[in-house]
Amino acid sequence: MKSVTLRGSGEPILVQKIICLGQNYAEHAKEMKLDVPASPVFFLKPPSAIIHQGEQIVLPSISANVQHEVEMTVLIGEGGKNIHLYSALNHVAGYGVGLDMTLRDIQLEAKNKGLPWSLAKGFDTAAPLSEFIPTALVGDPRALNIQLHVNGKIRQSSSTNKLIFSIDKIIAYISQFITLERGDVIYTGTPEGVSRVDHGDTLEAVLQHVDGHVLTSLSVSVQ
Ligand code: MG
Question: Residue ranges per domain, the chain?
Fold first, then answer.
């Protein structure tokens, strides 16, 4: 079983499931030529896809177009079902930054055929995750920046205030249908600027306050 770390907490936390939002930034929906959804769209990644700081993304030979998607990530601390909107953020243990690595060609082929995305989104090393920062140290999760540099050049940069569905709404919505458990991780969706990665690339993602103070970061390379 794969685990993640919450800064200041002694033991690693086992990840039960990974839930990923799709089309949660208007500009990214536009670049993918998709409509903004009326309710949250989500899919699952298996926890076996997790890698951590300093580890390597392995490009599956089945794909010729593996892309990065930088996203704010949410670690569930206290599980629940039918969680109310007003108390939803109380279920969050911490926030981090992650990469939703995507086999874009395989995903588009699956979309066109009406088939699942499991291979495109769930392959080994498809879920690089940073250390999580406790909520008390983060402040307002709607006032954070996420950024991704590839080989030192900025590729994606946005603010969490542009999320179409905010974190409390995501938690309230999903928990109507899928029980959330301690150790679940939510990827909140990517902003515009997704692009292909290649062998030898270095990817550096950060979650920071709007004043530039870095809360947590993640550096991984492509094998
Ligand atoms: Mg994504």
Answer: 3-222
Q: Which tokens belong to 152?
A: 């030192």
- Cα of 83 from ligand 1 centre, angstroms: 23
- pLDDT given for residue 37 in this prediction: 87
Q: Which of 5, 8, 67, 27 is nearest to 162 (CA)?
A: 27
Q: What is the pTM of this model?
A: 0.97
CATH number belonging to domain 3-222: 3.90.850.10
- What's the pLDDT tens digit per position in 9-29? 989 999 999 999 999 998 988
Helix (H), strand (E) at residue 204 = strand 202-209
pLDDT tens track for 164-189: 999 999 999 999 999 999 999 999 99
Q: Comparing C-alpha atoms, which of 87, 98, 90, 75 is closest to residue 12? A: 75
C-alpha 46 – ligand 1 centre gap (Å): 14
Distance 67 CA to ligand 1 centre (A): 10
Residues with CB under 5 A from ligand 1 (ion): 69, 100, 190
What integer pLDDT is reported at residue 159 of this predicted model? Answer: 96
